[in-house]
């Protein structure tokens, strides 16, 4: 299999428009993954995403339910996204050849908690049931394709400090705010097939209360990499006033993850900044 390059858009928080589509046409990733929190339940971005010809998969976040406990706004997002949304399910992107399995939709992290909107749409799905759904979907994937888990919040177990990939930074004491159902699913999947990558967002890179920057990449002893893509705001400007667009960027092949970075592009496709997170020739960082 040729090496794939996959762009990952972290929490959009309404920052997605035609300039992002033109940028993607210029930089031409093989596929696009989106980790949710598109907006506060608006319908604009799901419709825009449907216009893209690029193979893509997404999962919704807690903000996508808006402030609507009835679940109607969340359901409307799901209806508009259709097969692009892979929460609790498998989406095979073929071409380019990657199996994407979604985590629990609309999670706000913190272990296992379903909001009122989530309960209205999905019912009272418990932790075991949620982990089973993720695991079952992963085990139906073609074993010859690399597997990526795509979630809004990452799994528990990546650290309890505020700066950990899923660490709670907005309130003391800092703690592990990852999802336990996703952690259970990861552990079960790893026993049965290779899992090169888990991507997620929700926990923004800039920590609250001037605590600095979050650790956004880890790799465990089984070779699974964990990438937090939530650079918020993802539309910005550099000190010279040049417009920037953020994507996390991975290279993936038959042997697993080869390279991971955060990239900031100009809207015309010029790569201005890259933060290298890991590449295959480097020693793995156990967590
Ligand atoms: Fe979120």
Keywords for this structure?
Purple Acid Phosphatase, chain A, domain 2, 7-stranded mixed beta sheet, 6-stranded mixed beta sheet
The largest sheet, given as strand count, sense and whether it forms a barrel, is: 7 strands, mixed
Unreliable stretches (pLDDT < 50, length at least 5) are none
Number of strands: 13
* Number of domain modules: 1
Mean pLDDT: 96
- Architecture in CATH? 4-Layer Sandwich
CATH fold type: Purple Acid Phosphatase, chain A, domain 2
Bound compounds, each kind once, are: fe (ii) ion
**SSE ordering:** EHEHEHEEHHEHEEEEEEE
Number of helices: 6
Write down the Rg.
17 Å
In whole angstroms, how far apart are the ends? Answer: 29 Å
Strand content: 25-35%
Helix residue percentage: 10-25%
What is the top-level CATH class?
Alpha Beta
Structural class: alpha/beta
State the CATH superfamily name. Answer: Metallo-dependent phosphatases
The coarse silhouette is globular
Would you kindly provide a brief summary of this structure?
By secondary structure, the chain is α/β, with parallel strands linked by helices. It has helices spanning 18-27, 44-51, 72-81, 116-122, 127-139, 180-190, and strands at residues 4-9, 31-34, 56-58, 90-93, 98-102, 147-153, 197-201, 217-219, 225-228, 235-237, 243-253, 256-265, 271-279.
What does this structure look like?
The protein has 287 residues and is an alpha/beta fold. It has a single domain, classed as Metallo-dependent phosphatases (Purple Acid Phosphatase, chain A, domain 2). 21% of the residues lie in helices and 26% in strands. It is built from six helices and 13 strands. It has helices spanning 18-27, 44-51, 72-81, 116-122, 127-139, 180-190; strands at 4-9, 31-34, 56-58, 90-93, 98-102, 147-153, 197-201, 217-219, 225-228, 235-237, 243-253, 256-265, 271-279. Strands 1, 2, 3, 10, 11, 12 and 13 form a seven-stranded mixed β-sheet that branches. A six-stranded mixed β-sheet has the order 4-5-6-7-9-8, covered by helices on one side. Helix 5 (127-139) runs parallel beside helix 6. The chain is globular. Bound molecules: fe (ii) ion (FE2). Fe (ii) ion binds at residues 11, 37, 61-63, 152, 202.
